[in-house]
Amino acid sequence: MTYRPARDHRRRRFAAHIAALIVLCSACLSAPAFASARIAISCSSLGVEAELCRTGAQAWAKETGNEISLVATPPNADERFSLYLTLLASHSGDVDILQIDVTWPGMLANHLVGLAPLIPESERSDHLPVLIENNTVAGKLIALPFFVDVGLLYYRKDLLEKYNRPTPQTWRELTRTATEILQRERDAGARDLQGYVFQGKAYEGLACNGLEWIASFGGGFLDENGRSIATSDANVAALTLAKSWIGTIAPRGALSYSEEETRAAFQSGKAIFMRNWPYAWALANAKDSPIAGKVGVAALPQGDGANARRATTLGGQQLAVSRYSAHPKEAADLVRYLTSAAEQKRRALKGSFNPTRRSLYHDRELIAANPLYGDFPSILDSAVARPSTIAGRRYNKASYAIIQALHDALGGQGSISDNLTSLDDELRRISHDGAWN
Ligand code: GLC
């Protein structure tokens, strides 16, 4: 008798467990993988980026029964970074997914969710290892690669053919070819034609262009131990050539060009050569583009001197989940979807956003659609990274100093060697003399 109440109690508990299981199981049969959530995603708006991001996210929402909202951001990388910092510093849950630049992991890692437990290994292993490594901070994978950027040389095929000039292999050859064609075209009435347009505004895009010039001459900003090598002869030679473009083959206005101003000049037929990222290919060849079919694209030229090489800045974007998101699982699932092979292929075909998945560089349809994809693995071999891994949280300060020096050099504010000496002082100060700790 004394044991009966306890047995009854156990029986009742057992029945309650079974009933709960039945309720749970019928719920798992009828409900989607997770309850419906509203995920706010913030993409960049360079070219058609925002549009492709929206259509991709909407397709995921339809498939999963969730909702999405798009958070508008400026196309300029620096302005987007400031916006994200403000949101994250206030632990705002307003944005679940952020599109982060390849240089930001070290600066934002503390605000981002570790994705490895939320996204299966099979979805991660196809990405270029250099990007996975870049996005892993203190052992935590904080973002999945979305697309990879490299600086490219766009040129007017028709004009090079008209003057029987080959695609320039060196920056000097580009300077000569642009000067010659420009003179002849201007004499023939094309008064507003320019020779070369690039991103010369004082923002991150200039740091990318500058790195390409100096690395192609065998120079750099930091050595492999993080110490400044800003005053090297190669840097002086590269910047001397770049400065000579301003007011000759490049307009003075290039000192305030970011990607879109550069593309507007080239796409409206007002420039012979342009430096830009891969996204410009699809737009320059779009039906409504005045230069569709007249555009060639190649690796950037190399510099001069014994250590001359081809160099292109490694750029690109990643998708990360905010630590302050109320729906990290659903957000991670949207990241998985947007970085999947099918979605990256769609984006490559529609917007020439370069996939980060190695398998797609063997995809025949992609190679046929874009001449770049066959050559892309070799272009990627010449990619140089900005010093964001070594600078970590201080990358912004280092990049600001680099941009300032480059802009002063191009604009003739002081001599190039003075500009580089000031940069050297700044990099030593910011890095605690190369220790970066
Ligand atoms: C592109 C690149 C990015 C770079 C930025 C500079 O968005 O993907 O890496 O920092 O341009 O403007």
Any chance you could write out the topology, listing elements then pairs?
Layout: H1 4-30, E1 38-42, H2 49-64, E2 67-71, H3 77-89, E3 97-101, H4 105-108, H5 121-124, H6 129-134, E4 136-137, E5 140-141, E6 144-150, E7 152-156, H7 157-162, H8 171-187, E8 194-197, H9 204-216, H10 233-245, H11 259-267, E9 271-276, H12 279-284, E10 295-298, E11 312-321, H13 328-338, H14 341-351, H15 364-369, H16 371-381, E12 383-384, H17 388-391, H18 395-411, H19 416-430
Parallel strand pairs: 1-2, 1-3, 8-9, 11-12
Antiparallel strand pairs: 3-11, 4-5, 6-11, 7-9, 7-10
The structure holds alpha-D-glucopyranose (GLC).
Characterise this structure.
The structure is a single chain. The protein has 437 residues and is α/β, with parallel strands linked by helices. The protein contains 19 helices and 12 strands. Strands 1, 2, 3, 6, 11 and 12 form a 6-stranded mixed sheet that branches. A hairpin with a 2-residue loop joins strand 4 (136-137) and strand 5 (140-141). It is globular and about 65 Å long. Mean pLDDT is 92; it is low at 1-32. The chain binds alpha-D-glucopyranose.
Q: Give the overall pLDDT as a whole number.
A: 92
Specify the structural class.
alpha/beta
> What's the N-to-C terminus distance?
73 Å
- Describe the largest sheet: 6 strands, mixed
Q: Enumerate the spans where pLDDT stays under 50 for 5 or more consecutive residues.
A: 1-32
Number of strands: 12
Spell out which ligands are present.
alpha-D-glucopyranose
The rough form would be described as: globular
**Proportion of helical residues:** 40-55%
Assess the beta-strand content as a share of residues.
5-15%
Helix count, per DSSP?
19
Rg result: 26 Å
